[in-house]
C-alpha cells in the first residue's frame, strides 16, 4: 500500500500521467503506471487538471513576528498552491532560531535567506548601522541552521543602507566566502548604483526586484540592458522577479523580455499587506502577469519549479521525477480574462491564467487552495 496515488494528471505538455508517492518521494511516474495499484490517498484528475512539481516562491516574507513584512507561511504557501516558500531576509542572526522553530510548524516547506544585518528587517534601514553586520554571529547562525538557511540577503538601496553606499555589500561578499551560500541582493533606489552592485556579483548570486521601475532599473534610458547587467547575466547572475509592493513594472519587464532578458525565477515578495491589498495577491497572480506578456506557460512554470530548485540549491525539488520529493501543485490553466496591475498602477489584461487547485507536500499533506486567502474572488474576472 502506497501513501499517495494521483491518476490522470495532465502535464503542461499535455501528457496524461499517474504519479505514485511513498515515504515522501516520487517512486514512479508515467502513463497508467498506477493501474491496479492502491494507496492510502488516491486522487483522480481525469485528465482535466494540470500537475507540476510543487511551486517554489523564492522571495517571500513569512516570519509572523516581523514588525514590518510578515505573513503566515501556509497562507502564502499551501493555501495558494505553493509547496515551498523562501523567506528573503526578514530575520538575521538574532531571531533566526525563533523563526526556525515557528517555520517547522507549517505544512509548507520553509527556508530562509539570512539577512546580513543581525536584526533582520526590524526597521526599514537595517544596514545604515554597520555594527549590525557581525561576521561571527552570522557564520554561527548559518552553521546552526544548515539546510534551513540556504542563502544570504543584502538589501542594497538608499533607504536601507543610509550613508554606507556599497560597504554592506562588500562585507556580505566577504562573509559569503566562508560559507559558500548564494547571496540575494535587493535593488531599488541609489546610491549605491546598480552598476557598482552588479559588478560585485558572481555566478549564482541573485538580483531580486529585477524588473523594478526605480532609478536602479536594469535598462538604460534607451530601453537597452545596462552593460553591467549584460555582463552579470553572462557571468551567471540570477534574475529574480521579487514583485513586491513597489518593485515590478510591466514596462520594464516587457522591454527586458524583448531584449531576451527573461527572469530565471518568478517570485512574489509577498507579505500580508500586498497579499490582501495587492498588487501581489499570490504567486499565481505574479505568474499570470508573465503569461499576459506572452511568456509561455512552460517557461513560467520552469521559473517556479526546476529553475528555482536549481538556483536555490534544493536538489530534490522542482521536478516530477522518480526519487524527487512528493511536492506537487495541482492547477488549472484557464482561458479566462484577468485584469492585472503592476506596482506602478499600470494595467494589462491577460487571456490565460494559472489557477491553483491544491498543494501536496511530501505526498502526505493535501491542501486545497483557497481563493479567499489571496483576496481574489471571481467577480474580478470576466469569463470569456
Ligand atoms: Zn522582500
What's the arrangement of secondary structure elements?
Elements: E1 2-10, E2 16-22, E3 25-30, E4 39-44, E5 50-53, E6 55-60, H1 73-76, E7 82-88, H2 96-103, E8 109-115, H3 135-144, E9 149-156, H4 158-161, H5 167-179, E10 183-187, H6 194-200, E11 206-208, H7 227-235, E12 238-240, H8 250-258, H9 272-276, H10 283-292, H11 297-304, H12 306-311, E13 328-334, E14 338-341, E15 347-350, E16 353-361, E17 365-368
Parallel strand pairs: 1-4, 6-7, 7-8, 8-9, 9-10, 10-11, 11-12
Antiparallel strand pairs: 1-2, 2-3, 5-13, 13-16, 14-15, 16-17
Helix pairs in contact: 6-7
Bound molecules: zinc ion.
What do these coordinates show?
This is Amidohydrolase/deacetylase family metallohydrolase. It comes from Xenorhabdus budapestensis. One of its GO terms (molecular function) is dihydroorotase activity. The chain is an alpha/beta fold and 384 residues long. It is built from twelve helices and 17 strands. It has helices at residues 73-76, 96-103, 135-144, 158-161, 167-179, 194-200, 227-235, 250-258, 272-276, 283-292, 297-304, 306-311; strands at residues 2-10, 16-22, 25-30, 39-44, 50-53, 55-60, 82-88, 109-115, 149-156, 183-187, 206-208, 238-240, 328-334, 338-341, 347-350, 353-361, 365-368. Helix 1 (73-76) links the parallel strand 6 and strand 7 (82-88). Helix 6 (194-200) packs parallel to helix 7 (227-235). The protein starts with a strand and ends in a 16-residue tail after the last strand. It binds zinc ion. The site of zinc ion has 6 residues, from loops.
Amino acid at each position: 500500500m502506497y501513501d499517495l496515488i494521483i491518476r490522470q494528471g495532465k502535464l503542461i505538455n499535455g501528457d496524461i500521467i499517474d504519479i505514485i508517492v511513498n515515504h515522501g518521494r516520487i517512486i514512479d511516474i508515467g502513463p497508467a503506471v498506477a493501474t491496479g495499484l492502491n494507496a492510502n490517498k488516491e486522487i483522480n484528475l481525469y485528465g482535466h487538471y494540470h500537475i507540476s512539481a510543487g511551486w517554489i516562491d523564492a522571495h517571500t516574507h513569512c516570519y509572523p513576528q516581523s514588525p514590518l513584512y510578515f505573513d503566515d507561511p501556509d497562507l502564502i504557501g499551501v493555501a495558494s498552491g505553493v509547496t515551498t516558500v523562501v523567506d528573503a531576509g526578514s530575520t538575521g542572526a538574532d531571531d533566526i532560531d525563533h523563526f526556525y522553530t515557528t517555520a517547522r510548524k507549517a505544512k509548507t516547506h520553509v527556508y530562509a535567506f539570512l539577512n546580513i544585518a543581525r536584526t533582520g528587517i526590524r526597521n526599514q534601514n537595517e544596514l545604515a548601522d554597520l555594527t549590525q553586520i557581525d561576521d561571527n554571529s552570522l557564520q554561527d547562525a548559518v552553521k546552526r541552521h544548515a539546510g534551513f538557511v540556504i542563502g544570504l540577503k543584502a538589501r542594497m538601496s538608499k533607504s536601507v543602507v543610509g550613508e554606507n553606499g556599497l560597504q554592506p555589500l562588500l562585507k556580505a561578499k566577504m562573509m559569503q566566502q566562508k560559507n559558500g551560500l548564494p547571496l540575494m541582493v535587493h535593488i531599488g533606489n541609489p546610491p549605491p548604483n546598480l552598476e557598482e552592485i552588479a559588478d560585485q556579483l558572481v555566478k549564482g548570486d541573485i538580483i531580486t526586484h529585477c524588473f523594478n521601475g526605480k532609478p536602479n532599473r536594469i535598462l538604460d534610458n534607451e530601453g537597452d540592458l545596462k552593460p553591467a547587467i549584460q555582463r552579470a547575466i553572462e557571468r551567471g547572475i540570477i534574475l529574480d522577479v521579487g514583485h513586491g509592493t513597489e518593485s515590478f513594472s510591466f514596462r520594464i519587464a516587457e522591454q527586458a523580455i524583448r531584449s531576451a532578458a527573461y527572469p530565471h525565477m518568478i517570485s512574489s515578495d509577498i507579505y500580508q499587506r500586498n497579499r490582501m491589498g495587492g498588487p501581489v495577491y499570490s504567486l499565481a497572480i505574479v505568474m499570470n502577469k508573465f503569461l499576459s506578456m506572452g511568456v509561455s506557460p512552460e517557461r513560467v512554470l520552469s521559473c517556479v519549479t526546476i529553475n528555482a530548485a536549481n538556483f536555490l540549491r534544493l536538489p530534490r525539488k522542482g521536478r516530477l521525477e522518480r526519487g524527487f520529493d512528493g511536492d506537487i501543485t495541482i492547477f488549472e490553466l484557464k482561458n479566462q480574462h484577468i485584469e492585472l496591475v503592476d506596482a506602478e498602477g499600470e494595467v494589462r489584461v491577460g487571456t490565460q491564467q494559472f489557477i491553483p487547485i491544491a498543494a501536496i507536500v511530501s505526498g502526505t499533506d493535501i491542501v486545497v487552495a483557497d481563493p479567499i486567502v489571496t483576496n481574489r474572488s471571481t467577480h474580478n474576472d470576466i469569463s470569456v
